[in-house]
Design brief:
alpha/beta, five-stranded mixed sheet, 12 strands, globular
Length: 300
């Protein structure tokens, strides 16, 4: 039986999936990234996850595997760049993984994987059946990224950064970003950024984003944090929609689970900055069944 293996290498967790010939999941596993332990620790955790999955299935390790991660492989130097998991930047991630796994590895940007998976298998499946349909998929999580899909293919662009809206400026005097700029969308709308902002507004209290989103009715700082998310999302995404004008906007990542992003208030925030008198683009929550590791597997 043919199998497709994929890995989603994120800032906080590594998730693996094995699909059968009908693209049905046979196995899913996850473990922490432990990026604070450095590049070698991340490599060890990816390798350990693949070995553990092979053992659980009773299979030899795969000969081919796909992996989605933040950032992109620099075609000229073969090094990873633009990753918010900063210990991976300027490393020969692809070459090192192939050596450790003794397999052919395909590394793709995780936002491209998300956008393509949701277009093929998930929330955009019906919309993308139309000829020439375009999807813009956004990941709001530890980082903020995006991918554009047209004609069943992810668009990469001349620099390999097509769809990367997370490092456009949103707040000119905002927080410094790992990319060297200040006030990037990622420093405002990522999960860690929103949690930091809540802590400051609440006088030092700490809550997870899930707890923040569930306590807006009785916690003023939580309500302000979600309002900040909605306003910033509307302004930042509308800039992309004005240029790409996709048929569907698909939202994923941990922040993408905040229900307020799909509210009438969030729609008004988008319309406020849109160069049109109405928002005719479908806004959809990504489906859990069509995540980045699944698409990584298909691209392996």
């Amino acid at each position: 039986m043919k199998q497709y293996w994929g890995i989603d290498l994120g800032g906080t967790k590594i998730e693996g999936v094995v699909l059968d010939e009908e693209l049905r999941p046979l196995l899913r596993e996850r473990r922490p990234t432990e990026a604070d332990g450095g590049y070698r620790r991340v490599l060890e955790n990816v390798t350990g996850l693949v070995e553990a999955m092979a053992a659980e299935l009773g299979n030899p390790p795969p000969g081919r595997i796909g992996m989605g991660t933040s950032g992109r492989i620099d075609r000229r130097r073969g090094l990873l760049k633009n990753s918010n998991t900063v210990c991976l930047n300027k490393t020969p991630l692809l070459a090192d993984l192939e050596q450790r796994l003794r397999a052919r590895v395909t590394v793709e940007n995780d936002a491209n994987c998300f956008a393509l998976a949701e277009s093929m298998l998930g929330a955009g499946r019906e919309t993308m059946r139309r000829d020439g349909a375009v999807a813009f998929g956004v990941i709001l999580g530890t980082g903020v990224g995006g991918g554009i899909v047209c004609g069943g293919k992810a668009i990469r662009g001349a620099h390999g950064i097509a769809g990367e809206w997370g490092h456009n400026e949103l707040e000119p005097e905002g927080e410094p970003c790992y990319c060297g700029r200040r006030g990037c969308v990622e420093t405002v709308l990522s999960g860690p950024a929103l949690e930091r902002w809540y802590t400051r507004r609440s006088g030092g209290n700490r809550k997870s984003l899930k707890e923040i989103s569930e306590s807006t009715a009785f916690d003023p700082a939580a309500a302000e944090t979600v309002a900040r998310l909605i306003a910033g999302f509307g302004k930042a995404v509308a800039g992309v929609l004005n240029i790409v004008d996709p048929d569907i906007l698909i939202i994923g990542g941990g922040v993408g689970n905040v229900d307020a992003l799909y509210s009438a208030e969030a729609r008004k925030a988008l319309e406020r900055h849109l160069f049109n008198d109405s928002l005719d683009i479908r806004v959809a929550r990504g489906l859990n069944s069509a995540t980045a590791p699944g698409c990584s597997a298909l691209r392996s």
